[in-house]
């Protein structure tokens, strides 16, 4: 079936796609279609920050991807969820708001990407957020994303912050301000204790506009090409295929797994990969799906005397009710978070020119070390696999991983999950850094500020004292931090996929605008940077429409 023409067709209503839908439809001049495979999900567990555990156990709002089994992580296949709803991964994520290391943005620019340095990007970081406490030279005060700092001063968070300082990590008031490095309470994209994602903040207000059409439950199958020009696409909804035409551009915002998947399904990618999958080659672009990077998250577990962590609260009806009331009436407490309350951005060695590791306090401890859980168990504590004693964990990762993996299609079907090779811990730098980060956590835990709250280290336990034992722990238990990036890398070289204006090399009328364009890991969590990419992309698209 054929539908009418649009000026712009956006694929994916995630962190970046919702921004583009808003900005491109704002003037009323352009007809915009936004296609989202998920639903307009007004599910309670999306609204409540602590609902992330429920979301990730189920299927309703996520794609349940998994990596290929890999000997470097003990032969495991790792669960890699991505958001599938209006809001995309911003509707299901941990809400931790970290805007990026400015030095890494400067590095992007130095790689041949003019306009992406920290001073060019700062205005976008400011215009997307609303944070009233920060320095106005760095922080936005009236943007769509409402930002809150963790308000409670509980003993465990304080202990972590003190311990980190005693271990030599400086305190930082606002890591999204003039200095990135340091230990502090976390900031979240929440408002009065409720999750506020890009679907809420950017898309919903724009949905009133007559020139924006949003189709949910619409799985894009492939982009249509006439010669070297993208002219529209085919999507499937309710078992039927629809063809839509784009007068100006098709904008892929399907995220780091599915944007490269869609390019390959459209015949744009490495010719060998396409031929193996039975897809006709329209344009040989060997970098598509390569350069995949993620933060491998490794935790140390601890038992504590404090009865304030989720391990205790979720097993006590009284404490659960108190936590619920505190959240409902004050917008505070652990229910207003995904369990993480504070973090330290630090250098694993004082000789380094800038921070290379992040450590984060999670007010729970569990065997599985990620929110994957067991479906069917009776209580949420059991489903999450929480330890039966009061516990917490400190997770860490290497900020700028050098290990690179890939995402490629297996066949010609958009509904078939692509093959994801994370290739964690393949680069020597990452191996060295993760071991140093685990040692740094132990150093923090041994300081009086935090040590007073620790009964014992439970995972991997003090017997694991050599570098090899710590590396074994990382390989056996490390999980995704949910930060895949880089699979449609921006750059000017032969293996880059898009240029600095996010246009696919060699194809007209087609851009990729999401986390997949990041050339290297932005050295932080990836939601705010993905929203920034949506903001910057919208200016690039509108400038080109105006002819400059
Ligand atoms: C569980 C989890 C926790 C996280 N925690 C944090 C955190 O605390 N802080 C942080 O900064 N970052 C976090 N992240 C990462 C962050 O949310 C992502 O990096 C960011 O949302 C990526 O944005 P994006 O626009 O690239 O893609 P997404 O937001 O993933 O959007 C892609 C959209 O495209 C849709 N789509 C895909 N394929 C198709 C198709 N063929 N047709 C139509 N639609 C399609 C998807 O359904 C999705 O809605 C987390 C992510 C997850 C999954």
Q: Can you tell me the number of structural domains?
A: 2
Reported for the largest beta sheet, the result is: 7 strands, mixed
Which spans have pLDDT < 50 for at least 5 consecutive residues?
none
> What spatial form do the alpha-carbon principal axes imply?
globular
Task: State the helical fraction.
Answer: 25-40%
CATH topology tier name of the largest domain: FAD/NAD(P)-binding domain
For the record, what is the CATH homologous superfamily label of the largest domain?
A: FAD/NAD(P)-binding domain
Q: What fraction of the residues are assigned to beta strands by DSSP?
A: 15-25%
The assigned structural class equals alpha/beta
CATH architecture of the largest domain: 3-Layer(bba) Sandwich
User: What is the count of helical runs?
Assistant: 16
> Total number of β-strand segments?
26
Question: Care to describe what's here?
Answer:
With 548 residues, the protein is α/β, with parallel strands linked by helices. The chain folds into two domains: 1-149 and 194-294 and 404-423 and 481-546, 3-Layer(bba) Sandwich (FAD/NAD(P)-binding domain), CATH 3.50.50; 151-185 and 296-400 and 425-477, Cholesterol Oxidase, domain 2 (2-Layer Sandwich). Helix content is 28%, strand content 23%. The protein contains 16 helices and 26 strands. Strands 1, 2, 12, 13, 14, 15 and 26 form a seven-stranded mixed sheet that branches. Strands 8, 18, 19, 20, 21, 24 and 25 form a seven-stranded antiparallel sheet that branches. A hairpin with a 2-residue loop joins strand 13 and strand 14 (229-237). Helix 1 packs parallel to helix 7, helix 1 (15-25) runs parallel beside helix 16 (527-546) and helix 6 (155-166) crosses helix 13 (428-445). The longest helix has 20 residues, at 527-546. It starts with a strand and ends with a helix. The mean pLDDT is 96.
């Amino acid at each position: 079936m054929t539908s009418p023409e649009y000026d712009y067709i956006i694929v994916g209503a995630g962190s970046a796609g919702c921004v583009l839908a808003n900005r491109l439809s704002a003037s009323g001049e352009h007809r915009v279609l936004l296609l989202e495979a998920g639903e307009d999900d007004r599910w309670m567990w999306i609204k409540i920050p602590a609902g992330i555990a429920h979301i990730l156990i189920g299927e309703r709002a996520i794609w349940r991807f998994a990596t290929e089994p890999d000997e470097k992580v003990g032969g495991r296949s790792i669960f890699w969820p991505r958001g599938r709803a209006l809001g995309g991964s911003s509707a299901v994520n941990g809400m931790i708001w970290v805007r990026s290391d400015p030095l890494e943005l400067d590095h992007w620019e130095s790689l041949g990407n003019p306009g992406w340095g920290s001073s060019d990007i700062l205005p976008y970081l400011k215009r997307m957020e609303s944070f009233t406490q920060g320095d106005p030279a760095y922080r936005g005060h009236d943007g769509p994303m409402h930002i809150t700092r963790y308000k409670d001063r509980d003993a465990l968070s304080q202990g972590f912050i003190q311990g980190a300082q005693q271990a030599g990590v400086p305190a930082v008031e606002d890591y999204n301000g003039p200095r990135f490095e340091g230990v502090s309470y976390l900031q979240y994209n929440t408002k009065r204790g409720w999750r506020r994602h890009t679907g809420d903040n950017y898309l919903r207000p724009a949905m009133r506009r007559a020139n924006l059409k949003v189709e949910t439950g619409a799985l894009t199958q492939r982009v249509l090409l006439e010669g070297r020009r993208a002219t529209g696409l085919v999507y499937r909804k309710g078992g039927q295929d629809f063809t839509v035409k784009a007068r100006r551009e098709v904008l892929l915002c399907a995220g780091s797994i599915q944007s490269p998947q869609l390019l390959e399904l459209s015949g744009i990618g490495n010719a060998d990969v396409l031929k193996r999958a039975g897809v006709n080659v329209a344009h040989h672009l060997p970098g598509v799906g390569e350069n995949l990077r993620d933060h491998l998250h490794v935790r140390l577990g601890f038992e504590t005397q404090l009865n304030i962590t989720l391990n205790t609260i979720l097993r006590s009806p009284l404490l659960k009710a108190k936590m619920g009331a505190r959240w409902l009436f004050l917008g505070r407490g652990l229910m207003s978070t995904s369990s993480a309350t504070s973090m330290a951005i630090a250098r694993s060695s004082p000789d380094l020119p800038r921070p290379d590791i992040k450590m984060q306090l999670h007010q729970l401890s569990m065997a599985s070390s990620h929110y994957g859980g067991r479906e069917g168990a009776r209580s949420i504590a059991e489903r999450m696999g929480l330890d039966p004693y009061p516990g917490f964990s400190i997770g860490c990762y290497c900020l700028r991983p050098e290990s690179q993996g890939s995402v490629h299609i297996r066949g010609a079907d958009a509904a078939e999950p692509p093959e994801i090779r994370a290739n964690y811990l393949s680069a020597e730098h990452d191996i060295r850094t993760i071991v140093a980060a685990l040692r740094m956590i132990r150093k923090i835990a041994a300081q009086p500020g935090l040590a007073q709250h620790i009964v014992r280290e439970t995972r991997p336990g003090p017997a694991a004292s050599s570098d090899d034992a710590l590396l074994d722990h990382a390989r056996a238990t490390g999980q995704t931090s949910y930060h895949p990036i880089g699979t449609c890398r921006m750059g000017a070289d032969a293996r880059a996929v898009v240029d600095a204006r996010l246009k696919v090399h060699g194809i007209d009328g087609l851009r990729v605008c999401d986390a997949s364009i990041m050339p290297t890991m932005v050295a932080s969590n990836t939601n705010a940077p993905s929203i920034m990419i949506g903001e910057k992309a919208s200016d690039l698209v509108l400038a080109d429409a105006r002819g400059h």
